[in-house]
Amino acid sequence: MGFFNNSLSLMLWFWLAGWWWHKRDDFRLGTLIKTALLMLLLYSAHPMGLSFAGMMMAAMLAGLLLYETNMKGWTQSRDLFLKRLKGLVLSALPMLLLFLEFAFRREWSTDNNTPDVKDTLEKIGRLTSLVTLNHDESGWAIATSVACGLLLIAAIMLRIRERRFAPADGLILFFGLVIYSILNPPSSFSGGLEVPFRMGLIPFFAIMFWAATAQFPAWAKLAVQTVALVLTLGFLSVRMPVLRNASDYAKEIYSCNGAINARATILTLNYDWTGHTPEGQPIADRIWLFNHVDCYLGASRSAVISDNYEANYWYFPTIARWNTNMYQQTDKDGINFDNRPPRADMLSYNRRTSQQIDYVLMLSYTDEFKDHEYTKEIFSQLEQGFEQIFVSEHKRAVLYKRRGL
Questions:
Q1: What is the pLDDT of residues 334-376, one digit of tens each?
Q2: What is the residue-wise DSSP string for 149-192?
Q3: How do 397-402 and 386-391 pair as beta strands?
Q4: Could you tell me the residue range of the domain that residue 344 belongs to?
Q5: Domain count across the chain
Q6: Which of 150, 187, 319, 362 has the highest CB neighbour number within 10 Å of its CB?
């Protein structure tokens, strides 16, 4: 339910935060440059990981100040805090300049959505963010949530028994910031979809970060590793059949590859983003797993494919020609091929753009759509300007070529 880059940014967040914590008192130029490069790498991935990395390092910096003030006194801890803050800001400058350029370039809008606190907390408790392919994953997601909750309780009990504070207790502040962010999701800032859904994992990361500061006995560490392995195998047992069906479907779509010229402009009419097996059973009931499955056809050729949505939204760092944008230039009355069912004014594309649509790829079409006004328009245009040249094994992909091509 999110960009690959969004997931990648989480890993880079952990890497950056761990590196900074390890090198927090190393103020040499080389260390500052390496930290700056890691920040730039994280910025290049996604704002999600970048935002929480910033929150986490700020919270840990504040926690260090409180911890060291108690241990060393105000003057010494203050001076060290300022040195750390200066080093962090210097390393962040290149990334901050790029981030500000992005912020001033985008059109800001007010988010009028009022979050439902009860519903949000329930989704966090059930860890619905891990239910990504099929609702059958729900049981394993709840088990993961319970395991993390037990780990937190154990860590709290150990810390109470130890009666000690740790340098990384600023992570408690980070957990508070995470909960505030979850209950007030910045969807208008992100420019992306499903932001609250993607943030559902973050509280569990915060829990595990702080729990790791407790001194668990060896048997407890082994138990946590065992539970993690069981949960991983459980998720795999549910997801692998879905992924096998998804792979078969993607292969079927790609089977039309040989019928398409090396350079091509392809308009895709996708009637089913979730996908169905040849027997008509849904492949993934939790996610739009196949809304861009046709883009595999662009991997082996120089192709213009209609649903390159990054070319349709200005906040992606791409250079796109708006005057040949298929979202805009095949629309009719403000409705285009991205609609369900799709609608496209294919025959006027050449008049609008001086370009041609070479192929029309129809995915997962069934007769349930045949009486729809948009479907009748589609088939009328296909009869006038295109000829059918390929039908896949289970008829989930039907390819049309422009007449005269």
A1: 999 999 899 999 999 999 999 999 999 999 999 999 999 999 9
A2: HHHHHHHHHHHHHHT---TTTHHHHHHHHHHHHHHS--HHHH-S
A3: antiparallel
A4: 259-402
A5: 2
A6: 362
